[in-house]
């Protein structure tokens, strides 16, 4: 159901649980043809243009991915400077489902070998700010252990010039599949990452 006030630009769109078959809507976005499973969508989108708010947004992709989130953008027509907020209440995914969704924007993406030992991933977190300064807080749980991330991230509208600084805390994380001779580790690391264009990348990290 949908409501729109032409005088105030206020609107509400409610999406009752709806099954979406990706191949049926692939003509609108060719990348959707990579998705093999049915999707179930529900939620509520409202606001007063240009502000848009999403509440109780739920997405499932077969049995392999589930997302429950709330979000808001202050000005959808100018997302370069708009204030944004995303609260991820529930996110769980298999490696295959994560790969399928990343391929919507990066068709040639393949799962890095270093990612595979992590197995299924569960995550909760919050992203808040604008593209030039985005505060990220997230807790993730994997087959190998738990990871906590706190970071300040920035990019431009091309998403090719990136920078991120922050701290990663590992809790009883099993490093054995990644490095010979090391077992479980609880520690925190500081990192400073930057990328300019598609080829120039820099990563500095120190463990404590």
Describe the structure.
With 208 residues, the protein is mostly beta strands. The chain has 2 helices and 12 strands. The chain has a 12-stranded antiparallel β-sheet with strand order 1-2-3-4-5-6-7-8-9-10-11-12. The protein is globular, with a radius of gyration of 19 Å. The mean pLDDT is 87.
Order of helices and strands: EEHEEEEHEEEEEE
What's the helical proportion of residues?
A: under 10%
Indicate the mean pLDDT.
Answer: 87
Largest sheet: number of strands, sense, barrel closure: 12 strands, antiparallel
Computed over alpha carbons, the radius of gyration is 19 Å
Per-chain topology:
Layout: E1 2-5, E2 10-20, H1 22-25, E3 39-48, E4 52-61, E5 65-73, E6 84-93, H2 95-102, E7 121-130, E8 133-142, E9 145-155, E10 162-174, E11 184-196, E12 200-207
Antiparallel strand pairs: 1-2, 2-3, 3-4, 4-5, 5-6, 6-7, 7-8, 8-9, 9-10, 10-11, 11-12
Concise synopsis of the structure shown:
With 208 residues, this protein is mainly beta.
Key words describing this protein structure:
208 residues, mainly beta, 2 helices
């Amino acid at each position: 159901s949908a409501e729109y006030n032409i005088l105030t630009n206020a609107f509400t769109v409610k999406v009752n649980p709806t099954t979406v078959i990706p191949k049926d809507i692939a003509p609108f976005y060719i990348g959707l043809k990579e998705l093999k499973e049915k999707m179930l969508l529900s939620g509520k989108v409202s606001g007063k243009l240009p502000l848009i708010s999403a509440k109780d947004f739920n997405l499932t992709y077969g049995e392999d991915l589930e997302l429950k989130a709330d979000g808001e953008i202050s000005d959808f027509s100018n997302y370069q400077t708009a204030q944004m907020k995303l609260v991820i209440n529930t996110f769980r995914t298999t490696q295959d489902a994560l790969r399928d969704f990343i391929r919507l924007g990066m068709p040639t993406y393949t799962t890095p070998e270093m990612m595979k030992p992590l197995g299924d991933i569960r995550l909760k977190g919050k992203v808040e700010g604008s593209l030039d300064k985005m505060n990220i807080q997230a807790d993730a749980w994997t087959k190998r252990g738990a990871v906590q991330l706190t970071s300040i991230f920035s990019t431009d509208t091309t998403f090719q010039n990136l920078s991120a600084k922050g701290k990663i805390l590992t809790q009883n994380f099993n490093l054995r599949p990644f490095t010979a001779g090391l077992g479980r580790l609880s520690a925190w690391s500081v990192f400073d990452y930057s990328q300019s264009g598609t080829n120039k990348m820099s990563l500095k990290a120190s463990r404590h």
